[in-house]
Amino acid sequence: MNATDNAFILICSALVMFMTPGLALFYGGLVRNKNVLSTVMHSFALLGLASIVWAVVGYSLSFGTDIGGLIGGLDFAFLNNVGPGVENSPAGNLPHLTFMIFQCMFAVITPALISGAFAERIKFSGFMIFSALWIILVYAPMCHWVWGGGWMGEMGALDFAGGAVVHMSSAAAALACAMLLGKRKGHGREAFIPHNLPMTILGAGILWFGWFGFNAGSALAADGLAANAFVTTHMATAAGLLSWIAAEWVHGGKATTLGAASGAVAGLVAITPAAGFVTPMPAIIIGLGAGVICYGGIMLKNRFGYDDALDVVGIHGVGGTWGALATGIFASIGAEGLLAGNALQLWVQFVSVVATWVFCFVMTVIIFKVVNAMVGMRATDEDEVRGLDVSQHSETGYQI
Amino acid sequence: MKKIEVITRTFKLDDVKAALTELGIKGMTVTEVKGFGRQGGHKEVYRGAEYQVDFVPKVKIELVVQDERVPELVNAVRDAAFTGNVGDGKIFVSPMDEVVRIRTGETGDEAI
């Protein structure tokens, strides 16, 4: 065990944990005030639910002994054989518990990301059951495939901190949920204007801050690779912010605060798979691309007519896909991408992108339909119009 | 007696108030209101989607004055609230039947 690495990864775990309440603010500010608490609750409740599911079975399915490249065994279920020493630890420099809790924070935020798609119209009971099943049946296999010794990692797919595991997986689920759940009442006729953009900006800032733990921590050591990931993360995010507001300035005539926040998140998403594989200048290119491409991505829902309320597909899906492919183009640290003369890497990245989208979309459709048959996924019309805060939680966010 | 109602730009409130007090007006009522006239509302853009916001914030100033003071006060208000752009607002003058000062019971011009 390396005490320095242990200290660093424990702090990174705390940083990643803070992303989820940051996401709650980011999403919470974007909905109408009658749904602020329900939207915040989607993220915050997962700090409870996902953590427990992770400890009981999720961690083991992700990092237990590999079964056919598809899933982990149950040797770590209930955190058996996961102790303060390095025994069995996938990272030999870290206590097994440190590695487990770092990964736990990823398992918390990933289903929380999906909640942006079905905000303002989902039943809380359906959301909770759906999320628990999704962690077990979608997140854990994806995590195993990429990081736990599964086929995608073996194939050589590069995903430093979760472009496929976190962002594409949640976006594919978001797309499936938005399509199956249907549009919010009044969609296309009423304006769904964000009720508190300062809250959204604060949330985006917290996400940016926490993301240093997410990406730099994915080096799993307090070393130069972590420093590289930290710097690439920051530079790509800065570039994403600028290119998004530049795009909307040209396209719409003004730079908006929501655009700045969205561009930063797009940059963060896109650099995630690449953070430890590229140097800072390619990171800036990836960030610049992310701002413009994701700005285009949010127009997709208008074109295709689904109601992804808070643009999970446009930002995490499009940004994650761009990042995964860009990793195959720009990789130069510990792997070689297209520009280093290895075109095969880009092909491998492409295969991982397609597999991730297809697997996560199909599995989400199945889980959704099962839960819908069990308890129903959509709030009643009356509950939706009253707002989910009152109808689902008997509370209101503001007493004005 | 007449009631003068002025609906104008929020940032012009201080100018209008200063012009009226300079002419000896001792009281007025101000309300924050929303509405639209010929200029319509304005556009807001969120993540590339445009929304038309119809109602624009304005202030409404109400005061009751003696009949003979109306032309002078209306001109003063108009000068103070004028920018020359659409959205400067309107001044309405309407008859006022009775005014009662609650504290003293005075009525009519005495109560203004």
Automatic annotation (TrEMBL), chain A:
* Family as reported in the entry's similarity comment: Belongs to the ammonia transporter channel (TC 1.A.11.2) family.
- Lineage of the source organism? Bacteria, Pseudomonadati, Thermodesulfobacteriota, Desulfovibrionia, Desulfovibrionales
- The residues that cross the membrane are 6-28, 40-61, 97-119, 126-148, 160-181, 193-214, 226-246, 258-277, 283-300, 312-334, 346-368
Give the subcellular location: Cell membrane
One Pfam match, given by its short name, reads: Ammonium_transp
Q: Does the keyword Membrane apply?
A: yes
PANTHER family from the xrefs?
AMMONIUM TRANSPORTER MEP2 (PTHR43029:SF10)
- Using the UniProt record, give the first listed, main subcellular location: membrane
- Segments forming domain Ammonium transporter AmtB-like: 7-398
Provide the species name: Pseudodesulfovibrio senegalensis
The UniProt entry lists membrane topology as: Multi-pass membrane protein
What PROSITE patterns does this protein's entry cite? Answer: AMMONIUM_TRANSP
**Which GO molecular function terms does the record list?**
ammonium channel activity
GO CC, alphabetical: plasma membrane
Any idea which UniProt keywords this protein has?
Ammonia transport, Cell membrane, Membrane, Transmembrane, Transmembrane helix, Transport
**Entry's InterPro entries?**
Ammonium/urea_transptr (IPR029020), Ammonium_transpt (IPR001905), Ammonium_transpt_CS (IPR018047), NH4_transpt_AmtB-like_dom (IPR024041)
Name recorded for this polypeptide: Ammonium transporter
UniProtKB/TrEMBL annotation, chain B:
Please give the InterPro entries that the UniProt record associates with this protein.
N-reg_PII, N-reg_PII-like_a/b, N-reg_PII/ATP_PRibTrfase_C, N-reg_PII_CS, N-reg_PII_urydylation_site
Q: Name one GO biological process term.
A: regulation of nitrogen utilization
Q: Which domain of life is it from?
A: Bacteria
Please list the residues that carry the modification O-UMP-tyrosine.
Answer: Y51
Q: Does the keyword Phosphoprotein apply?
A: yes
- A GO cellular component annotation in the UniProt record: cytosol
Q: Name one GO molecular function term.
A: enzyme regulator activity
**Keywords assigned:** Nucleotide-binding, Phosphoprotein, Transcription, Transcription regulation
Instruction: Return the similarity comment.
Output: Belongs to the P(II) protein family.
Could you describe the subunit structure of this protein?
Answer: Homotrimer.
Q: What is this protein called?
A: P-II family nitrogen regulator
